[in-house]
Design brief:
Elements: E1 5-8, E2 14-17, H1 19-26, H2 30-55, H3 62-71, H4 82-87, H5 94-108, H6 125-132
Antiparallel strand pairs: 1-2
Helix pairs in contact: 1-2
C-alpha cells in the first residue's frame, strides 16, 4: 500500500491502515484526514530537500556563517530557526539562504578603487590615410 499509517495502542498492538480506515479509527472526517496527509507530504518534501542539500554541501561558507550568527538580530524577517541551522552548519531553504547571501554581500561590499581611464588615442584623417595608403 502506498500510504499506510501504523497505529500502536498502549498494549503495543500495531494496526496498519490505509487513509480511509485511519480516518475511521481516529474518528475524524476523511476531508480533515486528507488535509493532514497533505501536510505530512509537505513535511516529507521539506526533509527530502534538506537531506539533498546536506549531501551537496549546499550551506553557507564559513565567513557567511560567522557574519550571519553575529548579525542575525538585524534581520528579524528571517525564520527563527535560521540561526540554529547556520550554527550547526546545516543548509537553509534555498530562498532563505539566497537572501542571507544577498544581505551578506550588501553588508560587506567594498567598492574597488577605480583606476583612471586612459583615453584611447584617436587617429586623425592623415593617420588613417597613411594606414590605408598601401591597400
Amino acid at each position: 500500500m502506498k500510504h499506510q499509517y501504523v497505529l500502536q495502542n498502549e498494549d503495543g498492538k500495531l494496526i496498519k491502515l490505509g487513509i480511509t480506515h485511519f480516518a475511521d479509527h481516529i474518528g475524524i472526517p476523511e476531508a480533515v484526514m486528507r488535509q493532514l496527509q497533505t501536510q505530512i507530504h509537505h513535511l516529507d518534501f521539506g526533509l527530502d530537500e534538506l537531506l539533498q542539500r546536506i549531501r551537496r554541501h549546499a550551506g553557507l561558507n564559513s565567513e557567511m556563517r560567522a557574519w550571519f550568527i553575529d548579525n542575525h538580530t538585524a534581520y528579524p524577517d528571517f525564520p527563527i530557526d535560521a540561526v540554529d541551522f547556520v550554527s550547526n552548519e546545516l543548509p537553509l531553504e534555498k530562498d532563505v539562504q539566497a537572501e542571507i547571501v544577498r544581505q551578506y554581500k550588501k553588508a560587506t561590499y567594498v567598492p574597488k578603487e577605480r583606476q583612471p581611464r586612459r583615453k584611447k588615442p584617436k587617429l586623425n584623417k592623415a593617420a588613417w590615410q597613411e594606414l590605408f595608403r598601401d591597400i
